[in-house]
Amino acid sequence: MEPHAPYPQNDHFIRELTNCQAILCGYCKAALGPSEDAKDAWQRTNVTLWRKAAEWRPELDFLPWALAVARFEVLATVRDKQRERVAFDSDVVELMADESVQAAIDSGSRHEALDHCTGNLPDRQRRILFGHYVAGFPLAEIASANAMTEGAVKVLLLRVRRSLAACIEKYEQREVLP
Fold first, then answer.
1. What is the pTM of this model?
2. CB-based contacts of 26: which residues, under 8 Å, 6+ apart?
3. Which of 59, 97, 144, 168 has the highest CB neighbour count under 10 A?
4. Considering only CA atoms, which of 113, 112, 158, 109 is closest in space to residue 133?
């Protein structure tokens, strides 16, 4: 059994690792599909990054380094699966892994846009949105807790979704412009 990696004392490393979770998860899912294998590769990526924390230098861009670690974990997963049963040729998986990097980065920027746009919502709208879509509360319960009818909650959620879609589109276009 390997000894536990020391807790990284570098707040910058922890911040960078935390900020790229959506991209790393998206990369593993894009490369392996939405499966337990993808979740396992993502978890092993995080463990490896944690163990190698002392090797990372803050002057280097964290995301490419983290994605390289994730790529090796994805390839290791495919190699291990090939031993178990028929799977994609490793050349095909490498090509898919390379293509998945851009998909993961796009997913991460979309998450960033969503975080930005939900942060701009009024508190009540944000609370209702998260209550329904994140916490999974039924509309009737949300309506009761907010002194609204169920129909009013539906209308509010529709308007918030439209507002978020427009905000995300503007946010992403702003990032593309020079």
1. 0.47
2. 103, 104, 107, 108
3. 97
4. 158
